[in-house]
C-alpha cells in the first residue's frame, strides 16, 4: 500500500531540555486506521502536533501526501483534519455556522450538501441550529469531528476522541470512524481506551518515552505477544503436582482443584492435545476446560513495563 504519511528520524526537544520524541520512524498507509497507544507524556500528542504543523520539529522530516510539513505547510494542512483532545468551541455559535466557518477557513467554497451529510453521519443534524453551549460533552466532541471533516481531508487525526463520552456514544463514534475509513480517509487515533484500538484499528503503535517501541498489525500483535491460558477444572482435587508433570509448565491452584497452563498464542494446537493425553496417562481427569487469551491491554501493559525495566 502507499504511505500517505512518512516520518523519518523525527525528534523534538523543548526549551527546558525535555526530549519529547527520539528519532521516530513511521509510515502510515493510505486508508488504514492506526491506533497510537502510550502512557501520559509518552509523546503521542507531540507527534500529532508536528504532523499537523502546530509544533516545529527539532530534526527529521515529516511528509504528508508527498509534501513536507514545514516547507509545504499550507498544502499539508489542507490534507489534514485534526480533532483535538480539548473541547475548544465557540459556545455562542450554532452547530451549522461553526462547521461552515471551519470549511471557509481552509479557503473552500461553501457546500451545504456536504455539511448536511457530515452532520447527519455524526447524528448532529437535529442539533444544527442549537448553540454549542446547549450541547452535551459528547455532542460537542462530535462537532469537533464535523469541523475537522468540513474541508474533506485525506488524513484525520483523533486525539483521545472518546474521552468523556459514554459507552453508547463511544460505540456510535467507532461506527463513524469505520464509515470514514470506507470512504478512503486515513485515520490516526490516540486513545487510553485499549478496547477502542482492539475494536477498530488495523495496526497498533506503542509509544513510550518519546520512542516508537512497536508497530504491528493488530491481529499479528495479538498472535505474537498474546498469551493464552488453559484452565482445567479437575474431577478430583490433587494434593500436589505429580513429578512427571513438572516439566509441562503447569500450575496447581491452592485448593488443588484447578490446573493452569500458560502458553504463547502461536503455540500449536497439537501441543495442547499432547498435554491432555499426558494427563490422561497420569490418570488425572478433568470435568471442565476453559481458555483465556490476553487482551491488547495485557500486551500493552507488559510491553511498557518491560521497556521501563530496560531503561532503569
TrEMBL record:
Provide the protein name: ABC-2 type transport system ATP-binding protein
Which InterPro entries is this protein grouped with? AAA+_ATPase, ABC_transporter-like_ATP-bd, ABC_transporter-like_CS, ABC_transporter_ATP-binding, P-loop_NTPase
GO MF terms here are: ATP binding; ATP hydrolysis activity
What region holds the ABC transporter domain?
5-234
What keywords were assigned to this record? ATP-binding, Nucleotide-binding, Transport
PROSITE patterns registered for this protein in UniProt: ABC_TRANSPORTER_1, ABC_TRANSPORTER_2
**Species annotation:** Rhizobium soli
Q: Which domain of life is it from?
A: Bacteria
